[in-house]
Amino acid sequence: MDNRFTEFKPLITQSNCSYFVNSDTTDYKKHRLFVRDFKLSCEDFHYVYLTAYNNFARFSAVACEGPFSAWRKNHCVTHYVIADNGNAFEK
Q1: Which H or E element spans position 11?
Q2: Residues 5-29: what's their mean pLDDT?
Q3: If you placed Cys at 52, which of 38, 59, 83, 87 could pair as Cys (CB 3.0 to 4.6 Å)?
């Protein structure tokens, strides 16, 4: 049973998307910049789970049709961003 998204915290809801962030980091700047810079279409996938860490070049956004559940099938798509210098979204 996969329950990795049950620990995510709400960040913001906008444009029909509810964004959640990994709770095992202390700085959500990269998460906020992703929401600002990458306009996901939330027509079908309304719940977006963002994972990012400081000093890591990888960032993921898992967009799901409904809230993640460990008790049923989840229909999701994953978006990855990889920055060469580890500073994805820094501006």
Answers
A1: strand 9-14
A2: 89
A3: 59
